[in-house]
Specification:
globular; alpha/beta; 1 helix
Amino acid sequence: MAGLLLAAGRGERLGTPKALVEYGGERLLDRGVRLLAEGGCRPVVVVLGAADADVRGAVVVRNPG
């Protein structure tokens, strides 16, 4: 079963895209990918839009809108 992580938001109230926020030394984006993979999801697909990021272990789809 595939996993989908929607991480395209700007995070306007936070001042930075939420996906890039670090918590416990790990970006929320990476944590989401890791948890989906640990849960057995293959492939893990990440949708990015507000920010570009290198994402290991996932297929990245860009949504500029």
